[in-house]
Amino acid sequence: MVEEAATASVPTSAGGLGRGKSRALEFVALSGSAEGLPRRLSGISEFDRTTGGGLVPGGCTLIGGDPGIGKSTLVLQLVGRLSATFRTAYVSGEESVDQVRLRAHRLGLANAAVELAAATEVRDIAAAMDAPNGPQVVVIDSIQTMFVDTLDSAPGTVAQVRASAQVLIKIAKRRGISLLLVGHVTKEGLIAGPRVLEHMVDTVLYFEGERGHQFRILRSVKNRFGPTDEIGVFDMTGEGLAEVSNPSELFLAERRGDVSGTAVFAGIEGTRPVLVEIQALVGPAALGTARRAVVGWDSARLAMVLAVLEARCGVSIGSHDVYLNIAGGLRINEPAADLAVAAALISALSGEAVPPEAVIFGEIGLAGEVRSVGQSESRLKEAAKLGFTRAIIPSGRQGAGRRNVQGVAITEIDHLSKLVPLFGSDKSVQPLRAAKRNV
Ligand code: TYD
Ligand code: MG
């Protein structure tokens, strides 16, 4: 529970708005001239692509993420690069000037022309932004430490976070400043998370990754100036974040093709195809109830694939413990991963490896039918680029010519049961099917 003081009173008169003066709006036509927004590019192409082509003057970008994931590192590297072209300012509410300098030294940015300040009072920051010849790019790290002195509540509460952001966004819009707000995702209710700001800002990016892994993924979830679901991939090194321009290579780097229970999924993240390895482990349940554990995928979706395997293909897997993992710490949201997950599960059950030269994609319906998915061609092209020579894909109604990618032999399947014989011929899968039929 967070106490919030009541502020402005709501108009109560019969008319709703009271008696204030009003002037009717002047409407304009859609066809009028509109100036294209010149974008501010950082030169860090993973970031520029995720934002849909750079920062927009007057636009506000929110970067959310768990504490310690690397948000401050990312924004510092960003302003370091941007400062070569634009007047940039970095306002830290969490670290002292010395701490930020120390980090900048470590990142090799000691000589970047970034204006640095440690401050938390929005009034002062606003005045600095509004000054003549003020900054063109401003980073606030983090918005949860900022406070507006006209409100009684403590910094970090919903009221403070919203009010601070509102003031800063207003000035940014008026002065054409590209504003970047950092927000910590919080588990406790005491501090407001970045979600309370999502409706106010133009672009929402989340910086995510498993703490133990070195990969970090910047994902755009809302963008008024570009596509969403775009991702940027970074590698956290001793000298800060490094760009990963070919993520598939990275996600498949430690793959051992000859092991059962793994399958390579050809996915699409935003506008870019990304290949990832899906790993499954299946074993008889030790205690009465079977365990299900999923990392990087939707557990409800796994339950559905398991149910379809059991009900439509006669694969008896319900009494087994099932563990599923997306290698490399990526999180997949695409239904197109269903078929690859099913392949990993069947392979884990049978002990027979999925052909290591094959990529798999396709959505599975409740009747066991394999449904076609978008962008088959770019998935296949990426697979060919990385040396895969085989693909197991849905038999769609699209012209076959569009699916022909040089060097990739295609196996089309229309029902999940046709996947089982491909590498589930081992007796551990088959006799169960026979037994089921006899019952
Ligand atoms: P930080 O940017 O402070 O996280 P946030 O602002 O999201 O809370 O990053 C914290 C982690 O990043 C810290 O645990 C150490 C690691 N790190 C590196 O591995 N290499 C580096 O060069 C830097 C600056 C940080
Ligand atoms: Mg930080």
Explain this structure:
The structure is a single chain. The chain has 439 residues and is an alpha/beta fold. Helices cover 25% and strands 23% of the residues. It contains 11 helices and 18 strands. A hairpin with a 2-residue loop joins strand 8 (231-237) and strand 9. The strands form 3 sheets. A 9-stranded mixed sheet has the order 3-2-4-5-1-6-7-8-9, sandwiched between helices. Residues 431-439 have low confidence and may be disordered. It folds into 2 domains: 45-245, Rossmann fold (3-Layer(aba) Sandwich), CATH 3.40.50; 250-437, Ribosomal Protein S5, domain 2. Thymidine-5'-diphosphate is lined by residues 65, 67-73, 103, 106, 236, 238-240.
Question: Any descriptors?
Answer:
alpha/beta; binds magnesium ion; 2 domains; 439 residues; binds thymidine-5'-diphosphate; elongated; Rossmann fold; Ribosomal Protein S5, domain 2; disordered C terminus
Offer a concise description of the structure.
The protein is an alpha/beta fold and 439 residues long. It has helices at residues 45-50, 71-82, 97-106, 122-130, 158-175, 247-251, 299-313, 338-350, 376-385, 420-423, 430-438; strands at 60-65, 88-92, 114-118, 137-141, 178-184, 203-208, 215-223, 231-237, 240-243, 262-269, 272-284, 292-295, 320-326, 358-360, 363-364, 370-371, 390-394, 409-413. It folds into two domains: 45-245, Rossmann fold, CATH 3.40.50.300; 250-437, Ribosomal Protein S5, domain 2 (2-Layer Sandwich).
List the helices and strands and how they pair.
Elements: H1 45-50, E1 60-65, H2 71-82, E2 88-92, H3 97-106, E3 114-118, H4 122-130, E4 137-141, H5 158-175, E5 178-184, E6 203-208, E7 215-223, E8 231-237, E9 240-243, H6 247-251, E10 262-269, E11 272-284, E12 292-295, H7 299-313, E13 320-326, H8 338-350, E14 358-360, E15 363-364, E16 370-371, H9 376-385, E17 390-394, E18 409-413, H10 420-423, H11 430-438
Parallel strand pairs: 1-5, 1-6, 2-3, 2-4, 4-5, 10-14, 12-13, 14-17, 17-18
Antiparallel strand pairs: 6-7, 7-8, 8-9, 10-11, 11-13, 15-16
Bound molecules: thymidine-5'-diphosphate (TYD) and magnesium ion (MG).
Thymidine-5'-diphosphate (TYD) binds next to helix 2 and helix 3.
